[in-house]
């Protein structure tokens, strides 16, 4: 009599015991609760691993999406340009110069910051999930990087509150990359279109105001 072969669970069942992927808020909280004296950009880079591109885009873009003191966008925009450019060219591993990775906050200050934004991030995380995978493919990531690169350049322009729309678009892109959510990526693309529309509208308004003045003084 032939022995009955042992049953083999399908691949989907064999992976159910895998630990769930940590959310952005979980990693931030762990960094804030660590025993290190300071939390550096390099530590954040290491903590997020293969999600470092999206995580650091979010870290540098989110403050710009909120009302901040003048000059903030110029300071935080430089790392965004650097990160987005590497995404655009398809670099598989994020590299940052030492003067950026060594920037740090006291762990207590980082923990306070993390606790303030954690409720908002958790609300967003409940809405995010892997979907519309076509918008999170390697080719799509390069296009996302190109959009973020152009948006980061806009952040340097001295436009009152003009940094908020592009920063919000980058934030949506970043959340989509972290959670592999193509819907969030799509929101980022709509934000990109809106940012350029606002930029062109402001430019047209400035030109319409300046043209008569220039003609007046030009005789």
Task: Chart the SSEs and their pairings.
Elements: H1 11-14, H2 24-32, E1 38-40, H3 41-48, H4 52-61, H5 72-88, H6 98-101, E2 104-106, H7 107-127, H8 138-155, H9 164-179, H10 182-217
Antiparallel strand pairs: 1-2
Quick recap of the structure?
With 219 residues, the chain is mainly alpha-helical. It contains ten helices and two strands, in the order ααβααααβαααα.
Explain this structure.
The structure is a single chain. This protein is mostly helical. The protein has one domain. It has helices spanning 11-14, 24-32, 41-48, 52-61, 72-88, 98-101, 107-127, 138-155, 164-179, 182-217; strands spanning 38-40, 104-106. It has a two-stranded antiparallel sheet with strand order 1-2. α2 (24-32) crosses α3 and α9 packs antiparallel against α10. It is globular and about 65 Å long. The termini are far apart. Residues 1-19 have low confidence and may be disordered. The chain crosses the membrane at residues 74-97, 143-162, 182-210. Residues 14-23 have a biased composition (Basic and acidic residues). Keywords: Membrane, Transmembrane, Transmembrane helix. InterPro entries: ExoD. Residues 1-23 are annotated as: Disordered.
């Amino acid at each position: 009599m032939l022995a009955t072969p042992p049953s083999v669970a399908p691949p989907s069942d064999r992976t159910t015991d895998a630990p769930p992927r940590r959310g952005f808020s979980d990693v931030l909280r762990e960094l804030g609760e660590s025993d290190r004296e300071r939390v550096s950009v390099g530590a954040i880079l290491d903590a997020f691993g293969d999600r470092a591109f999206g995580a650091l885009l979010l870290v540098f873009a989110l403050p710009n999406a909120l009302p901040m003191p003048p000059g903030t966008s110029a300071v935080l925009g430089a790392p965004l340009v650097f990160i987005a450019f590497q995404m655009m060219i398809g670099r598989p591993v994020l590299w940052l110069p030492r003067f950026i990775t060594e920037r740090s906050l006291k762990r207590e200050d980082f923990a306070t910051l993390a606790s303030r934004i954690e409720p908002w991030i958790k609300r967003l995380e409940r809405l995010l999930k892997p979907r519309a995978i076509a918008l999170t493919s390697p080719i799509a990531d390069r296009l996302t990087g190109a959009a973020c690169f152009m948006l980061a350049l806009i952040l340097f322009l001295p436009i009152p509150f003009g940094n908020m729309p592009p920063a919000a678009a980058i934030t949506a892109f970043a959340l989509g990359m972290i959670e592999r959510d193509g819907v969030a990526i799509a929101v980022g693309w709509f934000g990109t279109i809106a940012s350029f529309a606002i930029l062109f509208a402001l430019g047209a308004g400035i030109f319409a105001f300046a043209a008569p003045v220039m003609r007046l003084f030009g005789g």
